Amino acid sequence: MISVSARAVAGPETRFAPTMIARREPGSHDVVIDIAYAGICHSDIEHARALRGRPYYPLVPGHEIAGTVAAVGQAVTRFAVGNAVGVGNMVWSCRACPSCQRGLEQYCEGQRVLTYNARDRDGSITQGGYSEKIVVDQDFVIRIPDGMDLASAAPLFCAGITMYSPLRHWNAGPGMRVGIVGLGGLGHMGVKLARALGAEVTVLELAREKRADAFRLGATQFLDSTDPASFASSAASFDLIISTVPGNVDLDALLSLLAADGTLVSLAITPRPLSCEAVSLLNNRRSLAGTRSGGISETQEMIDFCAAHGIAAEVEVISADDIDAAYERLLRGDVRYRFVIDTATMRLEFA
Amino acid sequence: MISVSARAVAGPETRFAPTMIARREPGSHDVVIDIAYAGICHSDIEHARALRGRPYYPLVPGHEIAGTVAAVGQAVTRFAVGNAVGVGNMVWSCRACPSCQRGLEQYCEGQRVLTYNARDRDGSITQGGYSEKIVVDQDFVIRIPDGMDLASAAPLFCAGITMYSPLRHWNAGPGMRVGIVGLGGLGHMGVKLARALGAEVTVLELAREKRADAFRLGATQFLDSTDPASFASSAASFDLIISTVPGNVDLDALLSLLAADGTLVSLAITPRPLSCEAVSLLNNRRSLAGTRSGGISETQEMIDFCAAHGIAAEVEVISADDIDAAYERLLRGDVRYRFVIDTATMRLEFA
Asked: DSSP string spanning A89-146?
């Protein structure tokens, strides 16, 4: 076993505290990664605070991981010591089911293992990226293109792929009118990616003070999502809308913005069921859809696309001692646009 | 004006009674149709009985019309006296908006006029097919292929196209696993059409006595939609499910049946909002969609497809005096599979 420093919560109402966790000795297909940065995703808060599902405590969140290869198993062919690599929200899937065969490991019908708070094949509970090292099967490791900053690359492994995958699946590109609801960690990547794909991008956001940022990031229109006039004036004018809001929103209002054959993608695991009037879908043959992150080869495609277009997340790098404070700020929407933990601050000499 | 016999309701709780209604003198682009048969759609009941929307009384329902051309305006080029023709649920659209330009007149963003209970361009209220004649702009008249029985063709103009359009839009064909929920007027056409398109068809139905019919119509599987075991054993095994049930159903249960990228199409205008858990969509990147009938050129394509494959509706022909009784039987599900009014029974000598 490899013993590494990490930050964990002991229960839903405790603060993060330094701890040591065990990583397995690398098997022949494993990659040992020295984690440099770990992004903070809204779902980390939901798990740490038991706002959904059943957390296993002590819990080390983190599924936006960027770092450097420290060691490789003997059968590892795709990575070498020193490579810049990343890990997202999955560390295992069956690779045999129809979904895995199509590169949709996120919908694996067999045994998918999430990066943290999940039962691993050996029965242990996975622990995430708020730690110094992680050991991952090479099939779930992504190569970070040369020259990319690791801190701003880390959030691409969840926020980036979670936006890129639906944008690509629903064909965002030239001539497509795309709306991004909520300009946060996911939303800001959605704007950058949709614009880079050639789409015309509108931001729908309740915080009017983000208007200037929306345009700077690539939007050509900003709609105040609290103003009914925004919806009336933009009825039936979008082909694809992706809602990044981590809660229930007025789906009928958003659906009314879709032109014929338009799709509203809702990314949130909402506290209450999704609900809309039947006519909101019947009109214009609209669809309401959901997605979960993206597949492994698609994640590689995403980060290569980001490198080619000079895109990355806009991050605020924090110390591991400031995770609790960052959670509070994130819940207030006070982050532009992703907190990233500098894991060097976890080393024992700092603890 | 042309005065013709019809059957109308005077209010939401009255019985159908003989009446005379006025049809406009044909304009240069109009086709005068001697109606032979008019199908009874569930939505006729909803309108006649004021179960949705705001009916204009006296109300003559009927948007599944088959008959023969009696006269044509001077600019009519596509039809001649004696042609077998049909009319569905639209008699006008703008033909200039993006939807009309794409052949999606059912989503016209300008002025679409429904076949009955709608305000026409001249301010009058349209009256439907429960009548002897109708006058319709040639662009909204469909040619019925030679040799097709008019009684069993009539339901194709609503039930047929309402199933054909989503089946085609979501690519029903060889290798696709299609579920049809509810084996009624729409559902039985859905089974026939999906099978003729080459898809593998399952019927989900609560009436187990329809099992034999499901197989006769072309299904290869029958699932009892009241049995939780049906859902457990068929999880994630469909690519497309179309629900024809005219009310709220358990969408989470139906969504659980969809494999990766599957779509659930709900055709009903439901009394209560549609509702499902967010994870029901997030899992397998599922979509919940709606559609309204189909476009004009697609309706022509549908009936040509039906003729080529020897498909039509299974009908029970009734007298105009039996409309009220037919409504009661339809509400009980006691029809295999569409009531069609023989409009010859409306003539004054019969009244």
From this structure: SEEE--S-SHHHHTT-GGG-SS--EESSSSB-TTSPBP--SSBSEEEEEGGG-EEPPT
Secondary structure of residue A24 in the 3-state scheme: coil
Phi, psi for residue A209 in degrees, rounded to 5: -70, -5
Asked if A268's CB is within 8 angstroms of B278's CB, the reply is yes
> What burial class does residue B115 get, using C-beta atoms within 10 Å of its C-beta: 0-12 exposed, 13-18 middle, 19+ buried?
buried
Separation between Cα atoms, residue B339 and residue A69, nearest integer Å: 71
pLDDT more than 90, % of chain B: 94
Tell me: do A8 and A131 sit in the same domain: yes
pLDDT digits (tens, 9 = 90+) for B83-108: 999 999 999 999 999 999 999 999 99
Q: CA nearest B314: which of B199, B177, B133, B189? A: B189
Q: Are residues B33 and B141 in the same domain?
A: yes
Domain membership of residue A307 (yes or no) is no
- Residue the block writes with tokens 């339809």: B330
* pLDDT grade for A351, boundaries at 50, 70 and 90: very low
B80 and B172 fall within a common domain = no
* Strands B113-114 vs B177-181: parallel, antiparallel or unpaired: unpaired
- B236-257 residue pLDDT tens: 999 999 999 989 999 999 999 9
Q: Could you report the per-residue pLDDT of A186-211, keeping only the tens digit for each?
A: 999 999 999 999 999 999 999 899 99
Domain hosting A334: range is 2-156+314-350
Of the partner residues B277, B283, B290, the one whose CB lies closest to the CB of residue A278: B290
Interface check for A292 against chain B (CB to CB < 8 A): the answer is: yes
Flag if A291 and B269 touch (Cβ within 8 Å): no
- Give me the number of domains chain A comprises: 2
Interval A65-71 mean pLDDT: 98
| Angular region, B127: left φ>0, alpha ψ -120 to 50, beta rest | beta
Same domain, B97 and B9: yes
Q: How far does chain B reach from its first CA to its final CA, in angstroms?
A: 22
Q: Under the phi-then-psi rule, with left for phi > 0, alpha for psi from -120 to 50, and beta for the rest, what region is A82? A: left
Domain assignment present for residue A279? The answer is yes
Q: Is residue A238 part of a domain?
A: yes
How many helices (H) and strands (E) chain A has is answered by: 11, 18
Distances (CA, A) of B324 to B20, B88, B317: 19, 22, 14
CB B30 within 8 A of CB B19: no
Compute the distance between CA of residue A268 and CA of residue A279 in angstroms, rounded to an integer: 23
Do A151 and A23 have their domain in common? yes
Residues B211 and B335 in one domain: no
Domain shared by B269 and B185, yes or no = yes
Calculated CA dihedral for residues A216, A217, A223, A225, nearest 10 degrees: -130
**Alpha-carbon distance values, B275 to A251, B22, B267, B272 (Å):** 11, 43, 14, 9
Question: Which contacts (CB < 8 Å, 24+ apart) does range A76-83 have?
Answer: A76/A28, A76/A29, A76/A30, A76/A31, A76/A138, A77/A138, A78/A138, A78/A141, A78/A143, A79/A31, A79/A138, A79/A141, A79/A143, A83/A143, A83/A144
**Helices marked H in B118-158 — which ranges?**
150-153
Is the domain of A74 the same as that of A167? no
- Indicate whether B286 belongs to any domain: yes
Question: What pTM does this model have?
Answer: 0.95
Asked if B276 is an interface residue toward chain A (Cβ–Cβ < 8 A), one would say: yes
Q: For an interface test with B, which of A162, A242, A288 has the most B Cβ atoms less than 10 Å from its Cβ? A: A288
What's the CATH code of the domain at A199? 3.40.50.720
Residue type, B228: P
Q: Select the residue of A236, A280, A291 nearest B285 (Cβ to Cβ).
A: A291
